[in-house]
Fold:
Amino acid sequence: MKIQDGFTIDAPAADVWALLSDPERVADLLPGAKMGDRIDDNTYSGGMFVKVGPLAVAYDGTVSFQLDESERSVQVRARGRGKRGMGTAEMTMTSQVIAHGDTRTEVTIDSDVVVTGILAQMGRGMIQVVSKKMLQEFVGNLTKALA
Amino acid sequence: MIPPQFDYHAPGSLDEALGLLGSLDDPKVMSGGQSLLPMLKLRLASPANIVDIGRIPGLDTLAEEDGFLRIGALVTETQLEQSALVALAYPILLDTAKVIADPLVRNRATICGNIAHGDPANDHPATMLALGAQLVATGPDGARTIDIDDFFFGLFMTLLGEDEILTEIRIPAPAPASGGAYVKLERKVGDYAVAGSAVQLSLARDGTVASAGIGLTNLGITPIRATAAEDALTGQAPGDDTIAAAAQAAADATEPIPDRRGSIEYKQNMARVLTARAIRKALARAGG
Amino acid sequence: MATHNINVTVNGEAHAAAVDSRLLLVHLIRDDLALTGTHIGCDTTHCGACTVLMDGVPVKSCTVLAVQADGAEIGTVEGLAGADGMTPLQEGFQEEHGLQCGFCTPGMLMTGTALLESNPNPSEAEIREAISGNLCRCTGYVNIVKAVEYAAAKTGEGD
Amino acid sequence: MAPRTSAKICGMGHSMKRKEDPRFLQGKGNYIDDFTLPGMLWLDIVRSPIAYGKIKNIDSSKALEIPGVLAVLTGKDLEAYGLHWMPTLMSDTQMVLPTDTVMYQAQEVAGVIATSRYAAADGVAAVEVDYEPLKPVIDPFKALEDDAPVLRTDKEGKTDNHIWHWEAGDKEATDRIFEEADVVVREKMHVPRIHVASIETCGCLADFNPVEGHLTVYMTTQAPHAIRTVLALVAGHVGLSEEKIRVVSPDIGGGFGGKVPVYPGYVVAIAASVVLGKPVKWIEDRMENLQADSFARDYHMDAEIAANADGKIRALRIKTIADHGYSDAQAAPSKWPAGLFSICTGSYDMEQAYAEVDAVYTNKPPGGVAYRCSFRVTEAVHCMERVVDTLAHKVGKDPAQLREENFIPKEAFPYQSPLGWEYDSGDYQAAMDKAKEMIGYDELRAEQAEKRARGELMGIGVCSFTEVLGAGPSKDFDILGIKMFDSAEVRVHPTGKAIARFGTKSQGQGHETTYAQIIAEELGLPAAHVQVEEGDTDTAPYGLGTYASRSTPTAGAAGAMAARQIRDKAAKIAAHLLEVSEEDLDWEPGTFSVKGAPDKSVSIQDCAFAAYTNMPPGMEPGLEATNYYDPPNLTFPFGTYICVVDIDRGTGEVTVRRFVAVDDCGNIINPMIVQGQIHGGLTQGIGPALYEEIPYDEDGNNLAGSFMDYLVPTAVETPAWETGHTVTPSPHHPLGAKGVGESATVGAPPAIANAVVDALAHLGVTHVEIPIRPDRVWEILREKGVAE
Structure:
C-alpha cells in the first residue's frame, strides 16, 4: 500500500536535512518506534509498538537508512516480525528535502507499507488508517522538532 | 483457537472492580465477552488481566426513570429485544439490537460493551448518536457523564479511561410525535455493516421536523454524527426533496474506508440511500 | 496463570473442576467432561456448532470462559432426552431429514430447543431468524425449519 | 414411480428414515476430534504469515521452554527421512514442511507437539521464524508473462509458471464454423476460488506402535483406501508398508471434496507419532482450514458460441486459465488434468466444440479440489449456461425457448458429444416443462414486463445443465494408476441379517441407509436388517472413495451386483429346499416361490439359514459376495433450474424470491435423501453465486480467512427451495440410478447469475461476475443510470 504525504515548513533546508539524515532523531519522531543497537553502518535493530484500542502488536526487526546527500533524500526501510506469530510488517519511506529559497523547505514523503498475516486479513482496512495516522503524527512531530 | 494466558477476576461489587482496574497490570474489562473473547482467541489482544464485571449486582437496570431510559452495563441485546418498553417507545433500539451478530451472540453481548468497544462498525454507537445518549463512566473518583458526541475520537478509541467502567447509558425519553429507525446494510445476517444509518426525529404540530438526530455506522474511523443532515431536516416539512437533501448531507459527512464491503463511492451512496430509508421509516413511526 | 475452582451442573449432574482462567467452556465440556456431542466449527463465534444452554439460554460455548460458567446450569445435546428416547425436536430432525453429516446438529438442537421453550409455535421466519447463528453446510435449512415445525406441532398436540 | 418392495423391506423408492440419525441426534457421533487415546499428544502448526519468501531461521528455543511442549518439527527434521516433500494426487509435488522457501500465506512451517492443545498453541505463538519476503505472484495472467519470476525453482529446468496445457475437440473445424457463423457471442468470466467450508475442519489422530511397526490413522478422509496406498508409497522407505497401515475414517462432518487430498498436517502428525512413539492428534482450526486447504474452482474462462441468426448453436470455443496455486494438488483422475471440463457443451446439440485449459502456478495454496463437483463440471456448466443466455439476449429469444430449440432431443440418446462423451440417457424437454410449470414461467414473464415498465428490477434465470458422474470406467479413469472402480462386500448371516461393507465413505449422504435399501431391493431383506460399514481399511473392500457423486454409480452398483450374486446362490438353496429346479422358481423381493404354486415358497431368510445349516450337496457353505464394479460408462444426470430474483435499486442487493429445481438422476433410491441432497447442493450454489469467495490482495494475504469474511449462507439468506424431478433411468447402471449429490451445486450458480443478468438485460447488461455482491450490482446500476 502506497501513501504519499509531505509538508512545507519555514526553516532552512540544511536544518531540515540535518534532522532527517540523523537516524536516531528520526526514530524519536516516529510514534511507537524504538531504536536498538547499531548492526552496521546503515542498519539498526529496532522495535515498533502499535496499539489500537484493545488490539496491540509489537514488531521486532531492523531499520536501515540509505542517505543520498546530493539529493538530500533518505530512504528508511523498516522490517519487523510481529510477536506471537502476528505476521510481518515492512515499510519503505523515502523523504526528500527540497529547498524553496533560503527559509522555506518542502519535504516529500513516499511510503510503501506491506503488512502480512492476521492484521492484514482481519483489519477491515485498519492498516491503511493506522499507517496514515502514524505518518501524520510523524509529520506533526517533524514539524514541531523543526519549529 | 486458544486464547493467550491471562488472569481472570470476577469482582462482586463495582468498588472491587474499580480497585482491580487500579491495581492490576494491563487490565481489561469484560462484560458479555462477545467481542473480547474472539479477539483473544485470534490473539489480537492479550491483556494480562481480565476483570469480568458480569457478576456485579445492580448493573442490569433497563427502565425509564427521570426522563431517561437507563441501560445498565450488563443489559444484553436479547433483553433489549424482549423489552416491551423498548418495543413501544424506542423502536430504533429494537431495530439495532435485532441486526447485531446473531441471536446466540445477543444472548450474551451487552449494549454497553458494544459502545465501550469503540468499533466504528458496531451498530449501537450510531443509534446512540441519533438518540443523543449520555454515557455514565464510573472510575476511582466516582461517576461522570459523557455526552455520546464526545465519546468516540479515533479508531477503537474512546474517552473511557482504562480505570473506568461504562456503567450505564442514559437515553433521553423521546418527545411526543417522535420516531426512530436504524437501517443497516450487511453482506449477510450477522455481518458487520457495510453501512448503517440511525435516525431519530420528532415532529412539530405543523408536521415539520422539530428535532432530528442522525448517526452513521462503519462510514469512517469513528461512528459519525451527521449534523448537517440533521440541520437539513430540522424545521422543514419532510418531503422528498428535504429527505434527499438530508440523505445527501449524511453521505457528505462520511469518510469510508474501502474494503471488501465496497468502494468509497459505494459506501457513501449507501449512507445516502440508507439514511433516506431510515428517515422515511422514522417519519412513519412518528406518525408523520 | 490462576486456577479457579468452579462448580457447574451439566445435564443435571454437578461437577467440580479446577480450571485455568483461559479455558473455554467448550473445552471443559468436551475434553474434561468427555461430552463430545458439542462440537467446534469455527474460531470467530459464527458457526454455532458449540451451542449449549447456559441457565436455559443458548450460547456459543467457544465464546464463554469455563470460569464464567461457575454456578451455572449447562445443557448439552446429551442431556436432551433419556437413554433411548428422543425429544419431539430430535424426532423432528429424523422425520424431516433435518440433518446430513450431523456435525451442526447438536448446536441446532440446542438453539431449537430454546426457541420452542420461549415460542412454542414459531413461524418459518422466526425459526430462520432463531437459527441464523447456526451454520449448516449440508441441509440447506429447509428441513431444519420443518423439523422445528414438526416438534412444535407434536408438542402442541400433547397440550 | 411406486416402490417395488413393501414398506417393511424398504427397498428403492422408499423415503426410509436414516439409520445414522439417532447417534447424531443424541450427541453420539464419532467425529475425529471425539477420539482420545491414552498418552495422546497434540500437534499444532506454525504457519507462514507471508505469501512468498525465504526462511532465514527458525528458532524453537522459546517454544521448547513452555511447559508441556515436547518437540518442534521442521522441514529439516523431515528432510532427514526424505519426507519433506510428498507427491500430490496429480503427480506434482508438494511440501510437507519447507526447508527453505514458503510459497503461500498460511503454509505449514513447523509442527509443535505438546501434551495439551493449549500448550501446543502457546508453542506455536512462541516459535520465531525469520523470513526474507519475496514479491509474490498472485495474478495467474501475470504469472504467465515472460518476466514473471519462476516460482517452482525446486523443479529442475523449469523456466516458467505454466503447469500443463489440455485441450479437447477439433480446433480447426470449430474455428471454421466461427468464421462463417451468422452470430458469435462471447463472455469472459471467472469462477472464483471458493472453499468447501464443511462445518467440521480436517484433522487426524496418528497412532504409531513402535513395537509392531504398525500405524493406525484416524482421519477425516473421503477416500481411506487410496490414502493408505499413498501413505505406503510416500513412507514405504521408512518402513511403513501397506499391511501395517490402517486408515480409519470415522463420522465426517461434511466433506464435499475437501477431505480427499492428503494435507501436510496429516503427514506431520504421522511423522510426529513415529518420532515420539505416541498417539498424536491434529485438529485444524477454522482459519487454518479456510487459508491452507480444500480450495476449489479458480477458472478464468473466455467462452464463445457460434450460432445461426435464429439462435441455433453451431459451435462452442472456450479458452481457460486455471489458477492452481503453487502445486497441482487437485484430486482429479490422472488422465484428466482439467477434470471433466469437456462436458461444457452441456445439454445442447452442436456441430463442433473446442476447449482448452492452461494451468498456472501462483503463490496461493494448492487448489482444485472437486468441491461437490465431478471434477470441473461446475466451471463448465457455469460457462456454458451463462454464454447461452448471452446468445438468447443477442438473438432476442426467451432464454428458455432458445434452450429448448437447442436441446439434444431425447431420441438422440445415447448421444455422442463433439468433445467425446457418450451421454447415456436424457429427456431435457421434460425437465424444462416441469420446471416451467412449477414456477409459472409465463406468468412470471408477464409480471416482469409490468415491473420493468414501473422501473422495478426483477429477473428470471434458467439453467438446463448436464452433468457427468461416476468416475469411472477403468479404461479412462485412475488416480495415481489405481483404477476408479468401487466395491461392496455383502455377508448374509444365518438368521437372515446382513452386513455390507463398501469402499466409499459417507460424509452425510446417508450411505448407511441408502446402501441398505439397495441390498433390500435386490435381496428382499428389510433394509433395517442390513448393517452398512465404510471407512475402515482393515475391514472394508478396496475402493476409491466418495466424491464426484460417484458412490451410487460405482459402489451402489457394486452393492447391487454383490446382492445379485447372493440371490443367485440363494436361488439354488431355495430350489434345494423346495425340491424343484431353479428354473421353476419365481422371485419376489424376499421370497422364492414355485411357479404356479405361490403358496409353496421360502423366504430369503430361510435360504440364509440353510446356507449355513442345510446347503445343497456340494455347495460351499455361507452366503456372501464381494463385487468390484467397473462401470461401463459414466452417468449423465441433468435438470432445469429456474430462479426469480428481485434487485434493490438502492443498495444493489439481490434477493432470491423463488427457486425451482427439477432434477433427473435416474431411478431414485431414497426420495427423502435425494431431496436433502438437492437442498444442500442448492445452498452451496447460492453461496458462490452471491456470497462466497476467497480473494487475495496483491501481497498474497487471504482476505476471507475466517467465517467473518467467508460468507457461508445462513437460514435467513437461503430461500425455501422448491424441488421436483423427472425419471430417466441410466440404461447401463444396474439400478438405473445416476447419482445426485452435486447436481444442485453445479446448476444453481448459473441459474442465479442468469436471473440477475435477466433483470438487467434491457439495460444492455450481458454478464455479472460471481459472487454477485451488492456493490458489484450497484456499480452496474449506477453506470446504467438506474441506481436509486
Remarks:
- DSSP finds 19 helices and 34 strands in chain D.
- The longest helix of chain D spans residues 551-578.
